[in-house]
Specification:
Strand content: 5-15%
Order of helices and strands: HHEHEHEHEEHHHEHHHEHHEEHH
Number of helices: 15
CATH topology: Deoxyhypusine Synthase
CATH superfamily: Deoxyhypusine synthase
Helix content: 40-55%
Radius of gyration: 22 Å
Strand order of the largest sheet: 6-2-1-7-8-9
Largest sheet: 6 strands, parallel
Structural class: alpha/beta
Length: about 375
């Protein structure tokens, strides 16, 4: 795109009014510059994704549920503004504290952690969690949940989280305080990008030592995620932070094109809110435009917006803007469609076996199966 001209919109002399709405504020952001402008454009792009009925994935890195943001995720699920989720195990684990009524408190970051350790207080920056009353209590809940579950056959993390949502809904003290329970109610698949890197997996150790196997079918999980993109007319991602959740969602494009030779082109829209730098070579900071070279996004020039900001500041603004001006959508209920989507992708992959790349041969041609 050629931006080498003087034809842009005038920068306004910003005026704030006590009666302004969140929509007015986003309009102000979008008309200014720097990351304020990026945030305004991201909020409008999210509204566009919803309006155009895109299948929307929310990816969540970092510790977002300990600061209560699970409530925002829950609201977006209920409005039909999030269709599937990829997150860390920590966000699912800590979200369950609220459902079961285990204490999580505001603390402070200027502390002596040796003293906190003696007082059995665990901290995430300025959030305090009790070691026994919260963490050990949660550990017992998770251990009971999976004592006799998921050890009889391979499972995906979507099935793992769906089961957590079901049990928390039936038995937790405050089931309404969990986005995982809401995901269960609305058939929103919740994938944990790295299950073993969390307390959820650690709590399976007590059962594994009793010879109960837990076999995560990570390959089926990857195919399911690609199948969601494959079966969507329009598809987009809202990324909070980067990390493995970001890559897990974005690799759906390369799976379809590079591996399965589908030539689909990746996501139609991506929004990322991050504080990671692009020049270090890490995935968290990699620009969305760079993803085009991998086939992760359809267009490097349009419908991709990166906001360099703290997600705890920017995400509520983006979410509230969408909640304020977009009508609720009918839930897509993807969880119940995963097997159908999987089978559709499988059937199309094998429909003309002479045209796809066979790793057992030297045929390296790139077929077009669309």
């Amino acid at each position: 795109m050629n931006h080498h001209h003087f034809k842009g919109k005038d920068i306004p002399h910003v005026k704030l009014d006590p009666k302004m709405t969140i929509e007015d504020l986003v309009d102000v952001f979008a008309s200014t510059g720097y990351n304020g402008r990026q945030l305004g454009e991201a909020a409008k792009l999210y509204a566009k994704m919803i309006k155009e009925n895109a299948t929307i994935c929310l990816t969540v890195a970092g510790a977002m549920t300990p600061v209560g943001f699970g409530g925002i995720f829950k609201t977006l699920i209920e409005r039909g503004f999030v269709d599937w989720i990829i997150t860390t195990g920590a966000n699912v684990y800590h979200e369950d504290h609220f459902a079961w009524g285990f204490p999580v408190k505001q603390g402070h970051f200027e502390v002596d952690d040796m003293v906190l350790y003696e007082k059995e207080i665990v901290r995430i920056r300025d959030v305090y969690i009790k070691f026994y009353e919260t963490l050990e209590a949660e550990d017992q809940v998770v251990q009971k949940m999976f004592k006799d579950k998921l050890s009889d056959k391979p499972f995906t993390t979507a099935e793992f989280c769906n089961l957590m949502g079901k049990i928390s809904k039936e038995k937790a003290k405050f089931p309404e305080k969990s986005f995982v329970t809401a995901a269960y109610d609305y058939d929103v698949p919740v994938y944990i990008s790295t299950l073993k890197d969390s307390s959820l997996a650690m709590n399976l150790a007590v059962h594994r030592l009793r010879d109960k196997p837990y076999n995560l079918d990570f390959v089926r999980e990857i195919i399911e995620q690609g199948a969601i993109l494959y079966n969507s007319k329009k598809s987009g991602i809202v990324e909070l932070g980067g990390g493995v959740p970001k890559n897990t969602a974005q690799q759906t494009g390369p799976l379809l094109d590079q591996i399965l030779r589908r030539d689909d082109g990746g996501q139609d829209y991506i929004i990322q809110i991050t504080d990671a730098r692009p020049d270090t070579g890490g995935l968290s900071g990699a620009t969305l435009q760079e993803g085009k070279s991998w086939g992760k996004v359809q267009d490097a020039h349009n419908d991709v917006v990166t906001v360099y900001a703290d997600s705890t500041i920017a995400f509520p603004i983006l979410a509230l803007y969408a909640l304020s001006n977009q009508k609720p959508r009918k839930p897509k209920r993807l969880y119940k469609k995963l097997n159908t989507y999987y089978q559709k992708l499988k059937e199309d992959y094998f429909i003309k076996p002479d045209r796809y790349y066979d790793a057992l041969t030297s045929d390296l041609k790139k077929p077009k199966l669309k």
